[in-house]
Amino acid sequence: MQILIISGSPRRQGNSDLLCDEFARGAREKGHSVEKINLQEKEIRSCLACYACFQTGACVQSDDMADVLAKICAAQVLVLASPTYFLTMSGQLKVMIDRLLPKWQDLGGKDVYIIVTGHDGKSGLLRVGDDLAAIWTSLGAHVRQIIYGDHVWKKGEVLGTPAMEEAYAAGQCVGHTP
């Protein structure tokens, strides 16, 4: 299967990013094709709400989102990861989601895995997981699992936690209906 991992973390090798890599390791070991996009490295501007994309199927802006959107449409499985900032997803991930507008109707049927990290316990991360699940469910995707890396803040604190094992196991199980 073709898997696209989108890391919404502003930190390279931060906790969300490490969980993405562990998911990818598990999926690759099962023979899946995996690509990871770090949104922090992309130039993706905010949606202009001009709705020109409704007529053309493409955004009027020339930035990295056209390539990201093409990869999202081509993938069979999406993994979306975000740290929790002020009780919500990272700004990088939210801006990317807003820019799905030109192809929102083409995103149904995909399997989606969500990774959420933060210094709070799981109860403090649920809102982000629920919000991301609601967005992708409304687009017609199938949210297969939400992985919570809780009680992690400093870079690398997620290493050795149950969330690492869970991310690896989820990557290993891609393609199997839970």
From TrEMBL:
It holds the Pfam family FMN_red. Keywords: Flavoprotein, FMN. It comes from the Bacteria. InterPro entries: Flavoprotein-like_sf, FMN_Rdtase-like_dom, ISF_SsuE-like. SUPFAM superfamilies: Flavoproteins (SSF52218). Residues 1-143 form the NADPH-dependent FMN reductase-like domain. This is Flavodoxin family protein. It comes from Megasphaera hominis.
